[in-house]
Design a protein that fits this description.
Blueprint (H helix, E strand, L loop, with lengths): L3 E4 L10 E6 L17 H13 L4 E4 L2 H12 L12 E5 L3 E11 L4 H20 L2 E13 L1 H8 L8
Parallel strand pairs: 5-6
Antiparallel strand pairs: 1-2, 3-5, 4-5
Helix pairs in contact: 1-3
């Protein structure tokens, strides 16, 4: 009987990411135990970023400089727009993951409630999609988005051809 190991974690770490799913290989073995599965850190970061953005009260992700570079990148044609992993850092181990998020919240919302919602949503999405246990989700609130901030960005440029 040969063993088959399903692993999760960064593909760049060959020893990392062994999960408890082991079994026989061959025609008699269940399909889910035949082969090896690796999940890259970037995949977990994308899942966490999407899950955090779904929470009401989150305006954006990323610290000040990351958002500034993202705004410049968004204006450059052919760059594909904003990054889903902006403001998201993950550490993926053998069976566990830890997530750090830099967020901007909307003015007027309860930061404690929004942070709790982010934690719940991120843990649920990552665990459901990857099978990894999320041991912690750290939320750093870097800014509060004010309604007046949006007005400044949407003002038409004077002197532009219309």
């Amino acid at each position: 009987m040969t063993e088959n190991i399903t692993s999760v974690g960064g593909a760049s770490r060959p020893e990392a990411g062994l999960s408890a799913l082991k079994g026989r290989t061959g025609a008699g073995a269940p399909a889910e135990t035949r082969g090896k599965t690796t999940i890259a850190d970037g995949v977990v970061a994308k899942i966490a970023g999407m899950a955090a953005r779904e929470v009401p009260g989150i305006y954006n992700l990323g610290a000040g400089m990351a958002r500034a570079f993202g705004a410049v990148r968004d204006r450059v044609p052919g760059t594909g727009g904003g990054s889903l992993t902006q403001g998201v850092k993950v550490e993926v181990g053998e069976r566990q993951a830890a997530v750090d998020l830099d967020v901007v919240v909307e003015y007027g919302v309860s930061i404690v409630d929004v942070a709790g919602g982010v934690r719940t949503n991120v843990i649920s999405a990552v665990e459901r999609m990857t099978g990894l246990e999320v041991v912690e989700v750290n939320v750093a609130v870097d800014d509060v988005h004010l309604p007046d901030d949006e007005d400044e960005l949407n003002e038409p440029d004077e002197g532009r051809v219309r």
